[in-house]
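Box 3.1 A note on notation
Throughout this textbook, protein chains are presented in two layers. The first layer is the amino acid sequence; the second is a token string describing backbone geometry. Keep the layers aligned when reading.
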Amino acid sequence: MANSHGDFIWYELLTTDPDAAARFYGAVVGWRNRPAEGGDGAYRIFKTDDADIGGFTVLRPECEQTGMRPGWLGYVGVRDVDATAHEVVRAGGRQHVPPTDIPGVGRFAMVADPQGVSFYVMRGTMEGTSTAFAQDKVGHCHWNELAASDQNTAFSFYASLFGWEKGDAMPMGELGEYRFILQNGTMIGAMMNRRPDGPPPAWTFYFGVADIDVAARAVSENGGTIHDGPAEVPGGVFIIVASDPQGALFGLVGPRRS
């Protein structure tokens, strides 16, 4: 895979009801879905007209028993999965799934940062470049946002793993600052301190839509819950933060056309 070390290359939904998730995100984001090639149908792919964006699969009961809940996880491309997984543990994180090969796809590991936020690292073996993260394409991820217990410590951790750099920051009052993440000079997201009364530390991924108001109505009409927005953000676009009917948190970003 031609992506750089530190690029977001894939997104994955763990859900208690894959069929319901397929219907919901189809209505809200416009994704179609198909079974992953070579599998048994348990792992399915969300796709746009031009690219595969991510996967979704059932959250196994044994995972729920450990405290995992429906949610979105991101995959970050790395040069060496084994070395990166080792660095995560050495820095105080955890390894949930050890480095594992997926024939014809790549090698991955599921890990967690020292504040308990889960994510994947992966080295793909397929040709081409992942465009799952593409800020100029509807249906692709446009923004990767981490709400951390300690933003500065979190940034140091991810910077040491992936080479991310600090961009500009916006003040957020008592919560500190909203610090932009730069990957090879491109702004790919931001980190901030979580609200003390808010959800646990986690990544939230914002997917691009053609019309934020149409998408917001689709969330509500299809059993989702809007927690914030639509709210205008720099660049003249609007965001919402919502959860799907199974409780997975996600974001949407797009223009207001209505």
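The two ends are 39 Å apart (CA to CA). The mean pLDDT is 93.
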